[in-house]
Recover the amino acids of this structure.
C-alpha cells in the first residue's frame, strides 16, 4: 500500500522521472539458481553491499527474501537454507534493511567500530572481525556478539594472518559471549587464467578450516567469496559461497565449468530530449573532441556522468534508440547531466522517443559488461555509480 503522504505529493506535484531503472525479478532468481549449481550444497550468500552493486538495496533484498521463503523448506534439510544470510558492507545498511522490514539474517563484512558492535541491538546481524585488535576490543563483552572471523589467505586486505590463528582461538575460547558463527576468506585472483595463486589460497584456507572444525559448537558457516571462485568449488572446504557480481548477471557464464545461463538484472532507460542537424566539420560537446565527418542528425539524452554514464565512454560508448533498438554511438564528451548521440541512421527520430542506456542483453554493445570493456572499466564501476536516487522498478 502506498504511503498516504506519497500519494498526496504525487497528486499535487505529478512527475514522471526522465530516467528509469528496471530490475528484473526473473533475472536475479535465474542467476541465483544458475550459481547454486556450483555452490557448496547449493548454498549462496548474496552480496548486497554498495546499494546491491547499484541495483537497489531494498529492491534486491525484497526479491531475494521472497525467493528465500519459497525455496527454503523445499530444497534444504540441514537447517541453513539455500540463502542463509545476506552480505552487506556497513551497519548503516543493516539498519536500513531492518527499517524496511527485511528479516533475513545479515552479515556485515566491512569494518565496524567496536562501540557500534558492542551497543548494537539489531537482531540476526553478525559482524566480520578481520584483526586481532578488533577481537581484543570485544573481549570484555557480557552480551552475545555473533561474529564471522575473516582469515587472510593471501589477498592481504582484511583478515587475521595464518600465524595469528592460534592466538585468535585462545581469545575466542576465553569469552563465551563472543559467538563465532562463521569463518571466511576472499579470493583475490580467481578470474585469472592461471589458477596457481588461487590454488595456493585454497590450500591455505583448507588447512585453516581444520584448525576451527570441532573446536566451536557455534561454528555454522565456512564461506569463501568471489564470483569466479565458483570455478573452484569442489576444491574448497566450505558450505556456503558469497556471490556478488555474478548475481547481477555481469559476468560471462561460459567461463565456468558448467556453462551458466546468466542474465543482466538491470535495464536503464531514458528519452530523447532534443534533436538537431549539424554540418560537416562542426564540433560537438566540451573541448570539441568530436568533429562531424559529414552532415549529421544528433540528439541529446538527459543523462550524463552524474547519472551513471562514465565519462570514459565519451566518443566510445553506445545506446539504443527507438522501438527497434537501433544502436547509436555516443559522440563528444559526456557532460554532467547530458550526453550527445549520433542518430543520423534513425528514421522518424522525435523528442521523447525511448532510449535504452544500459541493455539487459549481455551481448549488446550497450550492456554494462560490453560498455565496461569499451571504456576499460570494471562492470562494478559502471553499476555502483548509478545514483541511489534514480527510480528503480521491479519487473517480472
Amino acid at each position: 500500500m502506498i504511503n498516504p503522504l506519497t500519494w498526496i505529493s504525487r497528486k499535487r506535484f505529478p512527475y514522471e522521472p526522465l530516467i528509469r531503472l528496471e530490475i528484473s525479478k526473473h533475472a536475479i532468481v535465474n542467476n541465483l539458481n544458475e550459481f547454486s549449481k556450483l555452490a557448496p550444497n547449493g548454498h549462496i550468500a548474496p552480496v548486497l553491499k554498495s546499494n546491491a552493486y547499484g541495483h537497489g538495496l531494498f529492491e534486491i533484498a525484497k526479491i531475494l527474501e521472497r525467493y528465500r521463503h519459497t525455496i527454503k523448506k523445499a530444497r534444504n534439510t540441514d537447517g541453513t537454507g539455500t540463502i542463509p544470510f545476506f552480505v552487506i558492507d556497513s551497519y548503516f545498511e543493516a539498519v536500513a534493511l531492518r527499517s524496511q522490514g527485511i528479516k533475513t539474517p545479515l552479515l556485515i563484512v566491512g569494518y565496524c567500530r567496536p562501540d557500534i558492535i558492542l551497543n548494537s541491538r539489531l537482531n540476526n546481524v553478525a559482524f566480520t572481525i578481520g584483526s586481532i585488535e578488533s577481537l581484543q576490543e570485544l573481549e570484555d563483552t557480557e552480551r552475545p556478539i555473533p561474529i564471522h572471523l575473516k582469515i587472510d589467505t593471501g589477498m592481504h586486505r582484511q583478515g587475521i594472518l595464518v600465524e595469528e590463528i592460534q592466538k585468535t582461538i585462545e581469545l575466542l575460547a576465553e569469552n563465551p559471549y563472543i559467538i563465532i558463527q562463521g569463518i571466511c576468506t576472499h579470493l583475490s585472483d580467481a578470474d585469472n587464467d592461471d589458477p596457481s595463486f588461487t590454488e595456493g589460497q585454497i590450500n591455505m584456507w583448507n588447512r585453516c578450516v581444520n584448525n576451527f572444525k570441532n573446536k566451536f559448537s557455534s561454528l555454522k558457516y565456512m564461506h569463501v567469496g568471489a564470483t569466479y571462485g565458483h570455478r573452484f568449488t569442489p576444491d574448497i572446504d566450505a558450505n556456503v559461497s558469497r556471490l556478488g557480481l555474478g548475481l547481477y548477471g555481469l559476468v560471462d557464464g561460459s567461463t565456468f565449468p558448467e556453462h551458466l545461463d546468466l542474465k543482466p538484472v538491470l535495464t536503464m532507460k531514458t528519452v530523447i530530449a532534443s534533436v538537431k542537424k549539424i554540418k560537416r566539420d562542426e564540433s560537438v560537446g566540451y573541448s570539441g573532441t568530436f568533429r562531424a565527418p559529414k552532415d549529421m542528425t544528433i540528439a541529446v539524452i538527459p543523462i550524463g556522468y552524474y547519472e551513471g554514464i562514465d565519462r570514459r565512454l565519451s566518443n566510445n560508448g553506445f545506446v539504443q534508440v527507438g522501438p527497434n533498438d537501433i544502436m547509436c554511438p555516443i559522440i563528444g564528451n559526456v557532460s554532467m547531466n547530458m550526453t550527445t548521440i549520433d542518430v543520423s541512421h534513425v528514421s522518424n527520430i522525435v523528442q521523447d522517443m525511448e532510449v535504452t542506456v544500459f541493455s539487459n542483453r549481455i551481448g549488446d554493445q550497450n550492456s554494462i559488461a560490453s560498455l565496461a570493456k569499451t571504456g576499460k572499466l570494471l562492470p562494478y564501476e559502471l553499476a555502483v555509480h548509478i545514483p541511489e536516487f534514480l527510480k528503480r522498478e521491479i519487473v517480472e
Remarks:
- Residues 318 and 329 are 4 Å apart (CA to CA).
- The longest strand covers residues 178-186.
- The domain at 266-359+361-395 is CATH 2.40.37.10 (Lyase, Ornithine Decarboxylase; Chain A, domain 1).
- The chain is about 25% helix and 20% strand.
